[in-house]
Amino acid sequence: MARKRSLPKFEQFFAVRRFQPALTFTPDGRKILFVTNTSGQFNLWRTSLTGARHEQLTAFEANTVRAVAVSPDGKALVFNADHDGDEFHQLYSRPTSGGWPEQWTDAPEVQHYVNDDAWSPDGTSIAFAANSRVPTDMDVWVRDVALGEVRQVFGGGMYAFPAFWSPDGRNLTVLEFRNTTDSSIHLVPVDGGDARELTPHEGEAVFTPGPWAADGSGFYVLCDQDREFTGLAFLRLDGGLEWLETPEGDVEEIALSADGRVLAWSVNEDGWARIRFRDLEAGTDLPEPALPRGARSFASFGIALSPDGDRAALIWQGPQRPPDLYAVETATGKARRLTDSMLGGLRPSQLVEPELIRYRSFDDREIPAWLYRPKRRGRGPVVISIHGGPEAQERPVYMAAYQYLLSRGIAVLATNIRGSTGYGKSYQRLIHRDWGGGDLQDWDHAAKWLLDQDWVDERRLAVFGGSYGGFAVLSCVTRLADYWAAAVDIFGPANLVTFAKAVPPTWKRFMDKWVGDPETEVDFLLERSPITYVENVKAPLLVMQGAKDPRVVKGESDQMVEKLRELGREVDYVVFDDEGHGFTKRANELRAFRLAAEWLERYLLA
What we know:
By secondary structure, this protein is an alpha+beta fold. It is 16% helix and 36% strand. The model has no long low-confidence stretch (mean pLDDT 96).
């Protein structure tokens, strides 16, 4: 008698490493620094170019390392980390040779940010951003490493971040973030003098500074001025903008070797990623990396180049492969995987690659979505998954929750509704001041498209999402109530008035543009808020929330759950006391997704 094959366990799908977008080479080019949660928390690690030995450099349990920079002499590290996901990042330093981190800042209500180019070329100073002067403004500061003295070099009424030091160490490029579709670049003398805006423009356009040319003549820029998609350009200090790459897809990342020889960038092609290298001295493109088809997630962005440009490091993944760290020989494209993140023993053949589909919405616009169908056929349940942001993109990356549901016979439709990035800035801007408007109709038409498929059981549809995706879930169960057999909301805004009033101080300047003014447009925002329609809820709802969430505060979930309980509706509420907007601790992540999976299985497979 043939033995029945058992299904993989829940833990197997989630037995993978996760990474933060922190990645850099040591100045000698022999080691790579990265951040992963192998220890159960996101800590700083170091590995060789062969991946033969991984060294853990921090041992935080409650703190999450977010970014790291190495001094030019390779002797010291500076990084930022926050506590229990509260996003009040503090600055730390430690010798690369060993030792316990020294905390440079201790301001519990202040955010501090560094990037991998934080050190001045001579190693005497660190550039960072902080809102320590005024909670609503993000200013640029420089710290004297030897003396510990800090001075402001740019800011005032802005949301600004240091980008790159000029090769002579006299200037910083600074990103002024005005909103998600508008930014500009300033040139800031660090020893005094007037800053100069290098990219003044009419209307909205994104200008993001990249690395400087080695001769200091200018720097690389990611820009979408007069284009639908972000392209790659070079901005000369004594001239204008020279376009280098203008694909029909966003150029998203850029890196340059310290010697100025090799340029690297990535292109988003319908969610899939393409990595490019160019030898600037020879003026020729180098082979593309020999990587399996894959994608980049926002949590693992970053391309690093060794100082001599001979090697690149990046985090790479696909729907059937969890994220791993790779080293690439730029001259040949040969890639070596330095980590093995599939700790659960699952094979790619046990996992599902999605199909990119498009469905029409109310305005005849085509909405992209990734359709994951179980290997076993027949009519079955489907979960509509809605990403956060909303100005983000669902991509074909490894999604443990999806793959687990698929193994149990539950399909997933992961949508990129209007407002998603990756499809041009006109599509992205459609969500501005329209939360709960056109997006709601996109979800309605997603459900209708599913109901037209002969393999879908119309009685077993569910909706799942976090952050803005949680708002989407709450909007669906209150305003499209008849579709759903179950729903899972993870830290989603329920009331757009209270949500917009409680966002972090630095975000308040954006809310009128993004969502609406909570002081002058109360009626408009309430008309778009799920809490207004709470009496319509029919589906059993699981709500999860981080107690320390600074973006969608706990009160958003509290008020929705309270109303549902008063109405006698089926709702379960789980609060994670030591988490913020997302899950930084592996134990909490496992618990949250296990609860979500069990909830969906209970109502979709009964």
